[in-house]
Amino acid sequence: MGNLSVIAPLANVVLLPVVPYAMLFGALALVAGMVYLPLGQGLALLAYLFLAWLTEGARWVARVPGAAVQLPPFPLWLLLAYYAIVIGGWLWGVGPRQEPWLPGVYAKHEATSLAPAEH
């Protein structure tokens, strides 16, 4: 969207460890709420604590001066050229072909045998 967050690495270090707990308690609240609603609501309060930490943490780091840098518009022709290179590279590498970085060497896909080795 034209912005580059320079504080995102710090935000990820601070906020990312909380995500699994928010997901865990959210899932537990969902399942428990289907069995017994008051139990699900109680567990949802625990999920809320972690989700509130994430939300407020994101707001806090977004308020840091210089947290984002405005980028110039990205030209459409450069985007299309990038996609052409990626798709061309993918098409070039599909199938049992010669490895481009090792001329004359073919990729071998040998099936491994589970039979005991003969001496």
Describe the structure.
- The chain has 119 residues and is mainly α.
- The radius of gyration is 26 Å and the shape is flat.
- The protein is 58% helix and 5% strand.
- Helix 1 packs antiparallel against helix 3.
- The chain is built from 4 helices and 2 strands.
- The chain has a domain at 3-71.
- The protein has a two-stranded antiparallel ribbon.
- The N and C termini lie far apart (65 Å).
- It has helices spanning 8-15, 19-35, 37-62, 76-93, and strands at residues 3-5, 68-70.
Q: How many alpha or pi helices?
A: 4
Low-confidence stretches: none
Q: Tell me the β content.
A: 5-15%
Q: Summarize the main sheet.
A: 2 strands, antiparallel
Physical arrangement of strands within the biggest beta sheet: 1-2
Number of strands: 2
**Helix content estimate:** 55-70%
Q: State the end-to-end distance.
A: 65 Å
Q: Please, what is the average pLDDT?
A: 83
Rounded Rg: 26 Å
Structural class: mainly alpha
Spatial shape: flat
Order of helices and strands: EHHHEH
Topology of this protein?
Elements: E1 3-5, H1 8-15, H2 19-35, H3 37-62, E2 68-70, H4 76-93
Antiparallel strand pairs: 1-2
Helix pairs in contact: 1-3, 2-3
Short synopsis of the structure:
The chain is mainly alpha-helical. The protein has helices spanning 8-15, 19-35, 37-62, 76-93; strands at 3-5, 68-70.
